[in-house]
Amino acid sequence: MVMAQPLKSEQVHRRHRAACSESAASEASSYTQHLLLLLRIHVRAEHCKKSRCNEAFLQRVKVNDQKKRDAKMLGKSLKLKREPEGPKEMKIVKAKPEDVVVLAPVPFVENYF
């Protein structure tokens, strides 16, 4: 019976270096079996567009800066941090007593055939 020899630490690192070499310039990457594989994608420039995910943040920064300037001129202090939306308001649900159905578990029946 022949036992398989485990890889030495150098061999694992050598393989990893080869898979992640910086010589292959890429625009995208993919993880496969815990190794980073570099991918090259080809896209025409006409199909690329700038990301808009940051627009709301930049707009909020501009508005907050204006509020800070106004408050500084008036000598007031401001709280500009965003606050999470609180819990919803309470409401009472009314129903007629005959419309209310109480559910109960089905009793256990021993069936020994």
TrEMBL record:
InterPro entries for this protein: Ribosomal_eL21 (IPR001147)
Protein name in UniProt: Uncharacterized protein
Organism: Prorocentrum cordatum
